[in-house]
Amino acid sequence: MKKEYKTEEEFLKDYDPKEFEQLSMTSDILLISVSDQEQTNYRKTSKKMMSILLVKRDDYPYKDKWCLPGGFLNPKIETLEECAKRVLKKETNLSNIYLEQLYTYDAIDRDPRTRVVSTTYIALIDKNKLTEMINPNASWFDIVLLEEKNNIVDITLDNGKDTIHLSIKKELREKTTDRYRFIAIKNENLAFDHAIVILAGIERIRNKINYTDIVFNMMPDYFTLGELQQVYEVILNKKLLDPAFRRIIANKVVKTKKMKTGEGHRPSALFKYKGK
Questions:
Q1: CB 3.0-4.6 Å disulfide test: which of 32, 176, 214, 264 passes with 43?
Q2: Domain match, 164 and 193 both
Q3: Phi/psi class of residue 5: alpha, beta or left (left: φ > 0; alpha: ψ in -120 to 50)?
Q4: Would you call 242 exposed, middle or buried from its count of C-beta atoms within 10 A (0-12, 13-18, 19+)?
């Protein structure tokens, strides 16, 4: 017979958390930068590259494979966002970075150890502004290929030593909201389900770039309009017409009295984000 309680305090005194199924929770972080590619010829305009920070695992499961920075939540002392910030600091030595919650991933078999539910976050940064060194087991991977054909997205990541090839299938889940389910059909050297997290994060940024100011989290304090346009084009993976781009950013930036000189080109006016 079910026991009746008169007060919540009385109920909690008898409550046994072991009566419920236990699971673990993690926070995983997709850290993205759009920054200048290293350029040896100063007369050439620096090319922008989208990069993702990955961490090489030093233990099983997935030993020696790459993954997103992440770690287990301490449920007694921190929220999921606090967990994400702690993990980011521990594994990459980075802090005070813009974070936005992406999705929660709860596939039953996503972690071979136990049932693990992951809440993922996007973190955006201009990696050229970093003043702290990232940890030795962390590395920036440039996205050297990002192509979609017949709802199959091919992604190639490269850090100069290791190359990771991913193919992800997109299945339309809801026609009314244009939401897709992502299925990894090729995954080389990337742990867990992080291949689909990477694609989901890229698509989230693409969807938000035209109606929010999210892109300026990846920009230096001062920039030319040409540099800003390059960042938009790298994220959207397409060339933008100059007049259309100027309309997009017209109310987002303000011209300064500063000028960019050098690089073998005539001086260019520098702008800054209007929201600062």
A1: 264
A2: yes
A3: beta
A4: exposed
